[in-house]
Design a protein that fits this description.
10 helices, globular, Immunoglobulin-like, five-stranded mixed β-sheet, 526 residues
């Protein structure tokens, strides 16, 4: 198979770029922002490529149980707030330190409009250090991408910018650009119209959406579309937007997208946003999981895997539609649920299309790079910078792989689908690590507390110890844990599962037994 840079290795290479970010988000919720909930954002922007500016407004529809003295939003200081309106009346506001404090009028109003403009912040190393990326395609046309996972929505719109806040009624997005440019965005395209030398695109999504997943990309694109037959029986528009210079590559990209969607559906269940679309847009940076319009910048680097073609970037970002976009955490401390489960979905593509050997080779390759330096779960109320590190991908995925080994496929795979389908965890609801671990324990009817605590909250590994016991066989134990793990052991008699822990277990046989031959578990092997 053609070698390529795997996703985790790339993250290791680029992780240091995070330290250069100017903005962060998450942490404890501002007390003033606990007093209201956002129902919808109605963003209406004119994008000015020649000036690298945006100007327009955002209407924030909200609900509050009590009269608000201050409506607190976030918007970076780089933008100038021209005015704030409620029921057509201008309000007093204060905008400093990336915080926008609005003093509402005495009314029962449930929406506020913020009119603003300014030069956009430039991404230093997107998507890890995000912002706006302004480039030109090979034909000399403007090409703009936006990435904001590490910064939040405040770098492009006023918002209640906290991971626990998602507009429960979705977003309405209107973009004005110079003709003949197109704007690809979240949801479904409701209308496009042309007025003089300007084009106006109106997008709408009724699904809840995380702030950093609200996104728009500007360019002159070729559109390739088909109808995807979901496992739910529903037909969903599937679209790829590529630059004109890559028009000939669009059919292949669409085929790769279709195969990835089918593979994800097999293991995670039906696509979560059927009323909108499944789509990717070519971006001037590597990629990001923007809901229903994933950013794709992997330069069509497909590799053969079994009888199909694989694009690791496309497949990973599409997997976030299930874990990250539908199943979303409210505290970045639990970000591994987004990244670890999605990274494990990458490994499942190898299982599905490359077979057992390809899967275990992939697992071995990825697990070798886990440094075990930081716990997978960060401290409560973590910011994005604090929680984002490579082990939420690699060790998070390896924990899910270990869980599969412990539970067995007959329990593990239905459990994954059941978790995604559970109404307590999807869309408008936020999840945390305990939600996941309790669900798994209840579904499997098994006490897994010690397993989860050890691998999620510590950096330790059980040490595999084997000693020859004369002609009787071998003494085998796992040092460093106060619980047991079901471990496959291969002897002359074949493979059997044995509960191993601190207390040595005698395994009979003349030949040295092979403990955990398929590396289901993270062990220190000497």
């Amino acid at each position: 198979m053609k070698k390529h840079l795997n996703f985790i290795t790339l993250l290791f290479f680029c992780f240091s770029a995070l330290q250069a970010q100017s903005w962060d988000w998450g942490g404890p919720m501002d007390p003033l922002q606990t007093k209201f909930k956002v129902l919808q954002y109605r963003l209406d922007l004119e994008i000015l490529p020649d000036k690298q500016m945006i100007q327009g407004s955002n209407i924030i529809v909200f609900e509050a149980k009590e009269k608000l003295d201050t409506l607190r939003l976030q918007l970076i200081d780089e933008y100038e707030v021209e005015k704030v309106l409620m029921e057509g009346k201008e309000l007093e506001f204060f905008h400093q330190n990336d915080v926008l404090d609005i003093l509402p009028v005495d009314c029962s109003c449930n929406e506020v409009e913020v009119v603003y403009l300014g030069k956009t912040p430039i991404a230093q190393n997107p998507p890890w250090s995000g912002g706006f990326t302004w480039e030109k395609d090979q034909l000399g046309n403007h090409w703009m991408g936006l990435s904001s996972q590490g910064e939040g929505a405040k770098i492009f719109m006023p918002a209640l910018d906290h991971p626990s806040s998602e507009p429960s009624q979705g977003v309405e997005l209107t973009f004005t650009v110079p003709k003949p440019y197109f704007v690809a965005a979240n949801g479904r395209l409701m209308s496009e119209k042309f007025e003089g030398d300007k084009a106006i695109y109106h997008w709408l999504s009724d699904y809840p959406i995380n702030n950093y997943n609200v996104n728009f990309t500007v360019g002159i694109f070729h559109e390739q579309e088909m109808l995807f037959e979901s496992s739910s029986g529903q037909q969903i528009p599937m679209i790829v937007y590529v630059l004109q210079e890559n028009k000939a590559k669009a059919p292949a990209l669409l085929s790769v997208l279709e195969e990835s969607a089918r593979t994800h559906e097999k293991y995670f269940g039906p696509y979560p946003f059927p009323e909108d679309k499944i789509a990717v847009v070519e971006t001037p940076y590597l990629g990001m999981e923007h809901q229903t319009i994933n950013a794709y910048g992997n330069n069509f680097q497909f590799v053969p895997l079994g009888d199909t073609q694989y694009d690791w970037l496309l497949h990973h970002e599409l997997g976030h539609e299930w874990f990250g976009n539908k199943i979303s955490v409210g505290d970045w401390a639990d970000m591994w649920i987004h990244e670890g489960l999605t990274a494990y979905g990458d490994w499942l593509f190898y299982w599905e299309h490359g077979g057992e050997d390809a899967y275990f080779e992939k697992v071995a390759a990825e697990s070798r790079h886990i440094p075990h330096d930081r716990p997978v779960v960060s401290s409560p109320n973590s910011t994005e910078k604090e929680a984002y590190h490579p082990e939420i991908y690699s060790k998070g995925a390896m924990l899910i792989h270990s869980l599969r080994g412990i539970l067995g496929d007959e329990v593990f795979f239905p459990m994954l689908k059941a978790f995604v389908a559970d109404e307590r965890f999807g869309y408008q609801n936020r999840v945390n690590t305990q939600d996941f671990t309790e669900f798994v324990k209840n579904y499997a009817d098994r006490d897994l507390d010690a397993f989860f605590d050890f691998y999620l909250y510590t950096t330790q590994l059980p040490e595999l110890v084997m000693k020859k016991k004369g002609k009787k066989g071998w003494s085998v134990s796992l040092k460093g844990i106060n619980f047991t793990l079901p471990v496959e052991v291969n002897t002359e008699a074949g493979i059997q599962k044995i509960e191993l822990g601190e207390k040595p277990v005698l395994i009979k046989g003349m030949e040295e037994p092979e403990v955990d031959p398929k590396a289901w578990l993270m062990l220190e092997r000497k």
